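Let's study today's protein:

:::
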Amino acid sequence: MANSPLALTFKDVILLPSFSTIEPREVDLSTNITVNLRGSTPIVSSPMDTVTESALAIAMAMLGGLGVIHRNCSSEEQVNMVKKVKEAEVRCLKKVYLYSHSTIEEAEKVFRKTELESVPVINKTGSFVGYLSRRKLSSCDPQDHVYKCAEKGPVLRIKDLEKNSLNSQNIAVVDDNGRLFGVLANEGDEDIVSLLDEEGRLAVAAAISPFSEKRVELLEKWVDAFVVDVAHFHNINCISATKKLLKKTSREVVVGNIGTYEACVDIITSLDDVAGLRVGIASGSICSTGIVTGVAAPTLFAVASVRDALEDYGASKIPIIADGGIGSPGDAAKALAAGASSVMLGRALAGTSEASSPLIRVGGRLYKLYRGMGSKSALAERYSADRYSAPSKKIAEGVEGLVPYRGSVEGVVREFREGLKAALGYVGAKNIPELWQKARFARLTSVGFREVLPHDIVLDIGL
């Protein structure tokens, strides 16, 4: 006991401010969610059956994050949810264009229906040939063909969308053959770029058991990444099954959950091509593992431990997804500062319109159901029973309850983004890797924690 580590969690520490030359608006939140999936928002939705189905996964990808479809359903149901994400329209890509043989008079009608300052011009085969700008219209004869007034300009390939500088607006997006796919025209926060696959569809991940080979085969064609979804991945059976899985799939595989330095070392030395680590054990608001078993690895402590292992073993390019207990932008900032590349949210997203549980009215207030995947009702579905060890394991390791309705997921994600930008501004970090280098933590006493909260006033009196 004398040499036991101190397992600090989010409420035990604060980030210290530093001299800064960075304004929040200058902060770049783009990050590698997996080795190859780079999003503009460092948020991943939890694969829980009251959180992530197709509607939330679509919204997450639109907002630059990643949705992970839960597995507490049949394989066919999960495949259908993933398909819905892939078939969804990408709102940031406008389907606006002019044919090169159209007249300027016809082009004027198109410009009256769009706010774009320039519209891509394509030939009969759909290949991009240039832009017609709004300012050029007045100098062209109404009967001229569009190609006579079109001008050359930059384009963005579909596969480079996620690598975009995030400042490119009103730019044509083309496939590898030069055919127009759409016009990048984000609205609102211009830092947000939807997370897309190489074909220009929304990116999506799916939760799997490492033992469900048939499910993996059915999902392989559709998903961008698999997320191994077990409560304690540092287990010989899980590692052995995942080793076989990695040889059979061409998709990226994120493994977890893990919570210690040793777990990380065993995984990265046993498994090739791990695309990410889901880190944190028993910190979630609806997880009772820590109480029921006395075993846990608080997310902040776990992230710091795993980051140390990755650095020590030269595997720092493997991203960490901090999972559990992240209820506020401040918690997310601490998780990222400790070494995570992104954070996984459950409760924070469970109350949104897009979350998969029904809306419930209680005493004039709106709520949504939220349950842990180890709760009795979730285990009764049987599909994810092996998340908490063998299906024969009888004890529940989760609870269920209600969370307040929060409206659209977009509002929640933007709140987290603004909080994170402010945090990085205080620390003096322009991006997440700089945050890893510059962040300084200080421990809080219980009195100090109370002082950090709003205090000595009456809150929520309806003014």
